[in-house]
Amino acid sequence: MQAESFAKMRANEAIGGAVADYLAEHRYEYCDFAAVLYDESGRAVSVEALPVNINRVQSELTVLINRRLRESGSCFTEIALGSLTGSYLLAGKGPRLRVRVCPADSCEVRLVSSFSQAGINQTCHCISAEVTAEVTSSLPLYSFSTEVCFDFLLAESVIVGDVPEISRYAWSEK
Description:
4-stranded antiparallel β-sheet
């Protein structure tokens, strides 16, 4: 539906702008969110999250995005009546109706930590933020809500471990 697409586009613009401005102002690195702990021989043994920074980023981003969505205010677009029927034959036909897109009812920011294999004895640790917002739109006699999800990477690091001396691919007999 065109109205839903327009609502998502406006919300993505507000969220994307807020996130871009926040990241430009705060130049975060991996060490701001996590610390890799090593044993006596220099091998990585664990990753420790830094909750103070994680919670601060999460709360600051939530406040900033909600403010930007509120400041964007209500906006309007016009959509042909035929486009609202769901019929491809009527799409773009008929009188144009004014659609009102309201700011998000709520916005939630959640920081996510994930580990994935990056090679032999290598682990990729990613810290990303998931932003979810609910945007309300209304037409004459009809209103609907749309959920907008936006993910972005905050930090990433590859943790390298020891490479085994014997590998099944490098086996040779002497």
